Amino acid sequence: MTSLLPMPGLVAIPPEDEALRAPVRAFLQSAMRDVAPAIRARSWLGFDAGFSKALASQGWIGLTLPREYGGGGRSGFARFVLLEELLAAGAPVCAHWVADRQSAPLILRYGTPAQRDFYVPRIIRGEAFFCIGMSEPDTGSDLASVRTRATRNDGGWLLNGRKIWTTNAHRSQYMVALVRTSGAAEDRHKGLSQVIIDLSLPGITVRPIRDVTGDAHFCEVLFEDVQLPADALIGEEGSGWKQVTAELAFERSGPERIYSSLVLAETWLAEMRAAGEVSPASTELAGRIAGNLAVLRAMSLAVADKLTKGENPELEAALVKDLGTEFEQAMPDWIQAALERDAHAPSPALARTLAYVMQIAPSFSLRGGTRQILRGIIARGLGLR
Question: Both 90 and 65 in a single domain?
Answer without folding.
Answer: yes
